[in-house]
UniProtKB/TrEMBL annotation:
InterPro entries: LysR-type_TF_proteobact-type, LysR_HTH_N, LysR_subst-bd, WH-like_DNA-bd_sf, WH_DNA-bd_sf. Residues 23-80 form the HTH lysR-type domain. This is Transcriptional regulator, LysR family. It comes from Shimia aestuarii. Keywords: DNA-binding, Transcription, Transcription regulation. The lineage of its organism: Bacteria, Pseudomonadati, Pseudomonadota, Alphaproteobacteria, Rhodobacterales.
Length: 311
């Protein structure tokens, strides 16, 4: 049976120059995804494979190596000692493969193909369409995939090509441009304010209902130091979906902070209109290699120019 050092050398040799050997990168990729996800079902979803297909690929790698890489613990899979040691090397190979894909994509000078843009669901719905309309006129053969997600997508793994974020990324291989600072205020539906009364001071907010966007504790950690007198009792309804939470505000369930760019022109009323706004940056981010791609650069620059203009 091969030792781990010999296996790792063999795997590197396979990926570089030996397709005639009995196992391939698909099996290695299946092992890596299963190890990182902890189950065949989750790994299959990540790789967009059926669970039986993924299971066969992992089993094939175990057969080729003569090693047991996983053992079942309840409904999850746990790495064996050999699997854990192998994972360290395979992760490095996976990162190298990702970088090869990035470099290849970055060298493309075509203005055709797919570009994935990730932003929060609220920004995706309310701010991106105007920019994408201009982009369609400029490059009609591009295929744009809007990844509306409130978590931070991993550009290094190509979950998206360009990200719109409110924090500057710290990975050295990413480049970012702060396109502008956005502002936000508290907003509520007029029918809610007609019923509950319009606050005249910050202290009045303590008596009002609030709609929560995600985690209440994190919201309080942000609002309370700013002097907003709210507790968890003020948040009786909310959603992890920004779009759902904003619709609850529009439907009269309570007050919530919202970007002035998003709230403008909607059927909501600014609460405490004279208070200082919340200020936060808008960062546009892409991978350094992708920034040399003509299509990525085109989309990046167009988004930057569009988002720099405050509606």
């Amino acid at each position: 049976m091969l030792g781990i050092a010999e296996i790792c050398s063999l795997l590197i040799h396979i990926c570089m120059s030996a397709p005639q050997l009995p196992f391939d990168w698909n099996h290695i990729r299946a092992f890596l995804a299963t190890a990182e996800e902890g189950s065949l079902s989750a790994a299959a979803r990540r790789l967009k494979l059926t669970q039986p297909t993924l299971g066969r690929q992992v089993a094939a790698l175990e057969d080729d190596l003569g090693l047991l890489l996983f053992e079942r613990v309840g409904r999850s899979l746990s790495l064996t000692a050999a699997g854990a040691e192998l994972l360290q090397e395979v992760r490095a190979m996976g990162a190298a493969a990702d970088r090869v894909a990035l470099v290849a994509s970055g060298q493309s000078q075509s203005i055709e193909g797919r570009v994935a843009i990730t932003a929060s669901d609220v920004y995706s719905a309310y701010l991106l369409p105007e920019a994408l309309r201009a982009l369609r006129l400029r490059a009609p053969k591009l295929t744009i995939d809007v990844v509306a997600a409130n978590d931070i997508r991993d550009l290094m793994r190509r979950e998206a090509d360009i990200a719109i974020r409110h924090v500057r990324p710290d990975q050295p291989d990413l480049i970012a441009r702060m396109v502008r600072e956005d502002t936000a205020h508290f907003y509520a539906a007029r029918r809610y304010l007609d019923r509950a009364g319009r606050p005249e001071s910050m202290a009045d907010l303590a008596a009002h209902d609030f709609v929560n966007f995600g985690d209440v504790e994190r919201t309080l950690e942000y609002l309370v130091p700013l002097g907003v007198p709210v507790t968890a009792d003020n948040f009786r309804i909310g959603s992890q979906s920004g779009l759902a939470a904003w619709e609850l505000v529009r439907q009269g369930f309570g007050i919530a902070p919202m970007s002035d760019s998003v709230a403008k022109g909607q059927d909501v009323e600014r609460v405490l209109p004279d208070m200082d706004p919340f200020v936060f940056p808008i960062w546009l981010t892409t991978h350094r290699e992708l920034h040399t791609s003509r299509r990525i650069r085109l989309v990046f620059d167009l988004l930057a120019n569009h988002l720099a203009i405050k509606p």
